[in-house]
Amino acid sequence: MIDVRRSGERYPGGDPMAGIDSFHAFSFGPYYEPHNLRFGALLACNEEHLGPGAGFDEHPHSHTEIVTWVVTGELTHRDSAGHESVIRPGDVQHLSAGAGVRHVERNAGPEPLAFLQMWLAPLEPGGTPSYDIVRGIADSTPYAVPAAAALLHVRRLAPGERTALPDAPAVYVHVVDGEVALADEELGPGDSARLSGERGLDVVSYGGRAEVLVWEMG
Description:
mainly beta; six-stranded antiparallel β-sheet
């Protein structure tokens, strides 16, 4: 089964007056859709846009694996476990909230910031919070989130290039940039596809370069 969700169908949230625009792929905060609570381990895929100086003040998380991918700009992160870093395009940030952690996320730079933040449910709740960042992750190196039995694949495709999707029970495809073809569907920036039990599928870039994030989930 292939379930395509378009960018324009995402639920708008955030606080535009404070320079925060959010677009939610799943039920999130005041947006509740009973048949759109999660897909596989994925609980959220939020597209966040922060103006210069805007951000999320210190807030708590628990029992969640949080993976962040910056599209443009720079994201400043600080958490209660003492981690502080700046995340840029090409970096993968992973905050494992464990039994509880607090953090701040802000656009401390002069340019607009856009990033994706993806929340995954751990197989077991609790544990000690942890933090990881991979700078400039390569296409051939999947990022593992073992606590959620998930792998993140980054695919940067040249025009006309084809890449195989994992044969997994649940696969989530998000187009960051460019245009791709998936089976009989054409997907553009912000579009996504939820694949259940599909095998032997490819994503093909057309019309230019493309960047795609692919979650492989058991």
